[in-house]
Amino acid sequence: MRGCKWIVVAAVLMAAGSVQAAGDATAGKQKSAPCVACHGTDGNATVGLYANIAGQPASYLETQLKALRDGERVDPVMSPMAAGLSDQDIADLAAYFSSQQIKHGSVPEDAVEPGALMYRAGNAETGVPACMACHGPQGLGNDPAGWPALGGQHPEYVAKQLELYASGERNTDLNGIMRDIAARMSDAEIDAVSKYVYGLH
Hints:
Blueprint: H1 2-16, H2 25-30, H3 36-39, H4 58-70, H5 78-82, H6 87-98, H7 109-121, H8 132-135, H9 155-167, H10 177-184, H11 187-198
Helix pairs in contact: 4-6, 7-11, 9-10, 9-11
């Protein structure tokens, strides 16, 4: 039942969508120099603990940058970087990075089966819904709902964010959806699905 509940919530939020300021990708590229050290020139990070932001839904990037700027989400690296950004800066950066192509990795053989099972079916016994219910079959995310793309995301980053959600340290998820889900996941499930999405496309 819990899995069904989250699928219903997901459907409602996707239908609701969100309104974001119009961004200019060209202006965003010009403003992206401070982002390059961690996220790469095209939004593909070279270090696994940093997020790949290429191809992320613009609405998600805007929401997270505003949360970091306004103190609703706290990160020792990103909070200071976002502090001086205007709404227009954020919209422009989101437009630029969302227009870039993410580079997918490969999935370790031992993570393919358990990772696919968690991503596509979840765990009914513990009330964990399928990840694809919100993030899509190919991990492309959902721009109107503001949900991130997971396909091609670094395993280290995904695992860390799930751990932060599970502990409640990251709490910018709508209605506590991700905190509830992550708290129900075992360490093995987090490890498997984090590795699986790296090659998902």
